[in-house]
Fold these 4 entries.
Entry 1:
Amino acid sequence: MMFWFLKSKSAKMAGNVQKLFLKDSYHEAIELADNLYCQYIDSEDSQERAHAKAALTWKTTSLIMLEEYQNAISVCEKIIDIYTHGNLPEDIHDGYNKKIIRAAYTDKARALYGLKEYNKSLKIIDSVVDEGIDCTDELTEVAVLEALLLKYEILQMDPNLSNRLIVLNKISFRFQLSDNPKILEQVIPVVRDMMLIFITLKDIKNLHIVRRILENISIRSKSEEVPAFLSYIDKFEESFKE
């Protein structure tokens, strides 16, 4: 059965949509995603239907990369509707559906950000984070992290530093112990920003907290930046003592 799955036409098409996206061929990815969806969304085979629905996610991301934000929002809403109101056998798996829906809402928030609808974007972000912050599945973790990173980007325009620090703290404390290299790769710049803020403020107490976070990350990450940041903190603390 697995052999058939790997060789099915819909599986190949889904794989090709992903490959096109990763090659930055967004127009081609969208065209193939549309073809896949139209051909298989009403299939009697559940795997083919799953491939058709998955294609919408790659279409959304491609539209965002092309800055076609309004079209991306429409596709996000379609994904949310399909996984919320679906009545096919595979739609019964509520846990999986929630993961897809959270990811779609994060993409919608990103598209709203592109349209400069910041308040609407923040409202969705807060909803995604509140619901998914304690979930440990990879799809939700990525959606929550991306939502928080987007919130941090929006708050860069906020003169209130404390609001940004709240987001930075939430990201670093939630994801510092992740074993996912891709997640840690995105967390490291966040911790760097925290380090630079506390160095600027000469806040030694919070800098110690940043050190512990970096030490936790260093156990799980091969990044050369982390030891460099720890060394930077050492030098700053030494100069501060002088």
Entry 2:
Amino acid sequence: MFMGVFYGLARKQHNRGKMFSSKIFRIFSIVLPVLLHGSYDFIASMENTMGGLYFVASLLYFLHCLLDW
């Protein structure tokens, strides 16, 4: 989902002729899903029952920051 959103934003910026922001969104479309997937795998492998809560809280914080941007 995150990859598609950021890639779509990159295409929109590219079509508008804004190459720098297009490049930033393309980088986000790769880096953010990798980081989210890696953090999810790390938390899922923890034996702490609070791991899922940590992931959900960090995801909600990320979405909050993204929507304010």
Entry 3:
Amino acid sequence: MINKGHLLVIHNALVEQNGLLHFDGTPFSGVAIFTEQGKVVKRHFVEKGVIGDVYLSPFYKSAIINQHLITDELVAEHIEPLMVEEDVFTGTLYSPHNNGWVESENVYREGILREGISYHMNTPLYHEVAIDTDNTSQTYEFCENGHTVYWDVAPFDHELEQETGRITCQSDDNKNLTVTLSRSFLDIVTYQEQIVFPSVQYLSLDNGIKFFDINIDTLYLTQIPDQCIEFVHELLTNQHIKYVHIDGFCDAWLETLKVAYARGLKKLDVRFDCKMDSSTLLAFRDAYLPDLEVIQ
């Protein structure tokens, strides 16, 4: 996994020495952003001080958002919908620091922040990445050491503005993972080639969804269809998950709870399917899962 992009710098912050562009005293490699009165007029890759090819943003529908490029200089208030010169803004907004280093490259559509990349201070290392593709919506967050602390991918219909499923992973300093699986989350595998980071240190989409070298401590399940329950069953079999929340609980989950309980499940939080009431679950708990705490 490559968790870095390009060092972005406003062109005026680059110093020419012996025919080469320098930044902070060394020949610059990255992307130079050329601006005039807050508007970006061109963007070029620079390699060891030499200007090269034109740079284009890596975002969804780039032909549209690459037509309007500005810096914070033209933004009076960073509130949504974002307004620029009294118009709702669609395009890319660059946010430079005083030294010319660009902290973020954010895409707005009709004034709403839709995609973006931010970087750790004065580096090309990603801090946050939010990007859309034809069939997905994706968000990632990385620490300064490159560890993926947040991984969120959803199959997404952009015309209908709705998702069909979602996987969200959030890790903490103790290398514990909180995982959320929603609706038809297995659809994500279908769009593997569109995923920017299909493999991170605890998750891979190669030949299915696989978790490894990580302890999943908490699992949230939302409206999981029957065809996805087997995957959850296997996940609970291979992990020691202490807390499970199920939105849309039905009797199809009962046998899976036995497995989770045997592997260390301590607490279950449920929202019931309309076809089931709490008495069935509580009777099952009393018979097979006597120490399980159930929250309704």
Entry 4:
Amino acid sequence: MMPVLASLHYFDLAPDELHKADISGGTHDVLLPDASADPVLLGARGRPGVTFVEYLRAAVAHGGFPGWEPNGLPLPEPLRALAFTPDF
């Protein structure tokens, strides 16, 4: 009997930055099945190979706006009040 191979599926986790700005965009996805506890997040602009937890850390460290990380600009004052270094 031949083993059955699982098919791979893209699971949409969230809209991407463009879609959130009401511009035709895409999604942040993970490829399933994935045995990893921290799968690679696909579609994260400017972050090839970033994992889901790394992306969450960037979001927390930038006041909920992970898009500030790759541009290297300082956070605006309102975001500085929300940003902190995550302990996960």
